[in-house]
């Protein structure tokens, strides 16, 4: 029980630090403030709230980490499916990729057994993302390739359980107008 509470406290503290570091109004001088580069999970916005504006320019690694953290963090009691995470992450995707990933595909079978169990348990699924580049083609001025390794944890009350297996996603990012966006992803 104590270990679980410590893990939850660390997750909450890391989330608070990430939120604080992303606030524009936290630095009234107008000078650049270093951003927190932890792999802390990004909170899922409440249902019915508006999506934030497109992110500020950042490195391909940080953009990929932010996008995949949001895409793979779920609230099954309010999200329709894992696609809801991708809908929240569209600000980090090119318009073509966003359209492909968030198209409204109906599945007559309904949610998976695991998704239904998370709903029954009132669980949240938190993603931890690390970005690498092993075996990636060299970067150019407008293209970068990265590999996202995603581990998820289901949090129910004071219980945490790893979601097995982990997920690996290969990403292609493009730079346009001073910012990087994810143009393609494959599993």
Account of the 3D structure:
Residues 31-41 have a biased composition (Low complexity). Residues 1-26 form the signal peptide. By secondary structure, this protein is α+β, with helices and mostly antiparallel strands. It has a single domain, classed as Roll (Nuclear Transport Factor 2, Chain: A). Helix content is 29%, strand content 26%. A 4-stranded antiparallel β-sheet has the order 1-2-3-4, covered by helices on one side. A hairpin with a 2-residue loop joins strand 2 (143-156) and strand 3 (159-176).
In summary, what is this structure?
By secondary structure, the chain is of the alpha+beta class. It is built from 5 helices and 4 strands; from the N terminus they run H-H-H-H-H-E-E-E-E.
**CATH architecture annotation:** Roll
**Which strand-content bin applies to the residues?**
25-35%
The rough form would be described as globular
Uncertain regions spanning at least 5 consecutive residues: 4-10, 12-50
Task: Please name the CATH topology.
Answer: Nuclear Transport Factor 2, Chain: A
Helix/strand/pairing class, anyone? alpha+beta
Amino- and carboxy-terminal Cα gap: 36 Å
Q: What summary fits the major beta sheet?
A: 4 strands, antiparallel
Helical stretch count? 5
- What is the CATH top level name? Alpha Beta
Write the layout of secondary structure elements.
Elements (H helix, E strand, L loop, with lengths): L1 H20 L38 H12 L11 H6 L6 H7 L11 H9 L2 E9 L10 E14 L2 E18 L2 E8 L1
Antiparallel strand pairs: 1-2, 2-3, 3-4
């Amino acid at each position: 029980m104590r270990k679980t509470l410590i893990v939850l406290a660390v997750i909450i503290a890391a989330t608070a630090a990430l939120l604080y570091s992303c606030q524009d109004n936290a630095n009234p001088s107008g000078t650049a403030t270093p951003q927190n580069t932890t792999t802390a999970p990004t909170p899922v916005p409440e249902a019915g709230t508006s999506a934030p504006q497109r992110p500020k320019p950042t490195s391909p690694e940080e953009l990929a980490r932010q996008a995949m953290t949001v895409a793979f963090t779920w609230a099954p009691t309010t999200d329709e499916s894992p696609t809801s995470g991708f809908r929240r992450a569209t600000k980090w995707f090119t318009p073509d990729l966003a359209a492909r990933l968030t198209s409204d595909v109906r599945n007559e079978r309904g949610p998976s057994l695991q998704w239904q169990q998370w709903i029954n348990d009132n669980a949240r699924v938190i993603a931890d993302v690390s970005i690498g580049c092993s075996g990636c083609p060299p970067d150019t001025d407008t293209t970068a390739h990265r590999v996202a390794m995603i581990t998820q944890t289901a949090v129910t009350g004071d219980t945490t359980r790893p979601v097995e297996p982990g997920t690996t996603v290969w990403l292609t990012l493009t730079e346009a107008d001073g910012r990087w966006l994810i143009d393609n992803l494959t599993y």
